């Protein structure tokens, strides 16, 4: 008896929506149910493709040449690969439905025709934005379909070339400019050419002064208060990342407040260097008040604000009072000027009417002092009663592996669901007492609501996972990225994530390192062996990363910091559980695990 094959008349969009909620493993299972399901769920696996490194790109490009999978690709991300002109020109044919292209390097020695890119709407990149530069030089490009465009200027002439062609992009909604100097007339020209622009992102940008004397700067503020700068109706997001000159040319803040009074998200990050922090000359009290008034004007005029990121920006309580006065209620805020003044800003946040859900804090050197750290964490716990996400970064503090007690933060933020530590040594102050008698239970801290934990570019001891196992029963997502283990004794080489009662949705581990001979005086070698045991399935799995390729990290912004050379795996080997292999391990013990990513590779 032959069972008839099931057929479905539903649109593929329905299966795409279903696939959005499935993991890679679940999509693979659905593809193997029957021939009908294979044809329905195959597109979802190739809809968004991310490539890292030349080896992965060669495999993907070879698959495009020998099969039809390219017709399913809508979003293609190519990271750390220099694409040749020939490969780039064939992509429209191999991926005819490509809508979103992300890349960080193209061989520009040859001219490239973009006449076939009829569906392309998003052109953005990681790091060096050279694909867009080629697109600008293409005489047959009309820009008619583009809604997102990112440009990195390799020469001053590129800016004039962009502005001469920008009127072609009449439907542009998002524009990102990297490494550029802009004047007031430049910004006005951008908005005159792109009247539908909703997001403007300026990276490594310098703003030319609108005025020079104090009187002229005040006149800019007066003009802004009378709305002499015609506001843009569509602009919702402004990001000024690692920008220079905003501290001295603070009259631009008045311009932003008047021009973009419909902003929902504002990101201002003034350029900062540990060796030469700005300002070089301390301002007077009157000069500080002028800057305070300029930043407060944004709180007065931009009444739709929900997300504010103010890093290394001079401000005081006037900004919070202005937002409270006009009824602004923020959902997210980022603070930090790399000095103790950040404590004052946290106190202002506590006293204000703002009740944020998400907080990003950029630390400063004196946070290494225990009393200062405890005061900061206490203020964080008081700043909101609905705080569910914290990003804590010491990246620009000049201090490596600054100790921050994770248990102290969780005890002060009872509703916290997500926590990210960046350039921090995660430590535990809570005594690891596992007794169950009444006295011991009485002294135990309350259980945390934490669900998602991220360690990045930092360090920890295995004791941290012992604490998480007991006091964070809801933890389902764990990420460890470029982190090192600190062992009390050098023989303690293994990272032991021993959480036997936890059911994880996802664990991601990339660049995990064991202790070096002399603390952290030199870069340790990545751990390549992973031992995973799941109690629910009574299953032990052993993975070994291999086929490493060298690569150099690229910074998204200019900073006095050297890029670091790494090596990353392009494959892994699955061994039998009883295989005897020596070397440091990342040992994971849990109740169940849905997805495991090691070295950016999907293992489970």
TrEMBL record:
One of its GO terms (cellular component) is SCF ubiquitin ligase complex. InterPro entries: LRR_dom_sf. One of its GO terms (biological process) is SCF-dependent proteasomal ubiquitin-dependent protein catabolic process. PANTHER family: PARTNER OF PAIRED, ISOFORM B-RELATED (PTHR13318). This is F-box domain-containing protein.
